[in-house]
Specification:
Elements lengths: L3 E6 L4 H13 L4 E3 L10 H14 L3 E7 L3 H7 L7 E3 L3 H9 L5 E5 L5 H13 L6 H19 L1
Parallel strand pairs: 1-2, 1-3, 3-5, 4-5
Helix pairs in contact: 1-5, 2-3, 4-5
Length: 153
């Protein structure tokens, strides 16, 4: 079963998001588009939070966020409880972030990589599976730390 893909972008990432959305839909993925819907200036924060909250709340759901560099999106998305967002600009990192870190949100920089490279990264990221074992233990530690800090807040 293919996961549902929740997507979001700011104005700088809008074109790449639309390109990836069309590609993913043609591959049979269900897309939930949290915006934006144009190149009009917006705050990336709003879309990173919207995607992060949706991914965190739903099973069999992954997220893709695009902004100019991917940095702002990844930093903000990682503030959402349960999110493991990873900024990726190469194929090896795309595979490792899923296999070793069970990343559930992929962040891309539209001003850093070309649309076609973003598609190649996305395909690798979506086909890689978390490896489990020692990697699952490491992810569990990461998430336990997050939970312990939330209780103190």
């Amino acid at each position: 079963m293919k996961p549902i893909i929740v997507m979001g972008a700011d104005h700088a990432g809008w074109s790449m998001k639309e390109f990836l959305k069309r590609k993913l839909e043609s591959e049979g993925y269900t897309i939930v588009d949290k915006g934006t819907d144009s190149e009009a200036s917006v705050d990336s924060h709003d879309y990173a939070v919207a995607v992060g909250e949706e991914v965190s709340a739903a099973e069999h759901t992954l997220g893709i966020l695009v902004c100019g560099t991917g940095i702002g999106m990844s930093m903000t998305a990682n503030k959402v409880s349960g999110i493991r967002a990873s900024l990726v600009s190469d194929l090896f990192s795309a595979q490792m972030t899923r296999e070793h870190n069970a990343a559930n949100v992929l962040c891309l920089g539209a001003r850093v990589i070309a649309h076609q490279m973003a598609w190649e990264i996305t395909k690798v990221w979506l086909t890689a599976e978390p490896l489990g074992g020692k990697y699952a233990n490491r992810v569990a530690k990461m998430m336990a730390y997050e939970q312990s800090k939330m209780k103190k807040a």
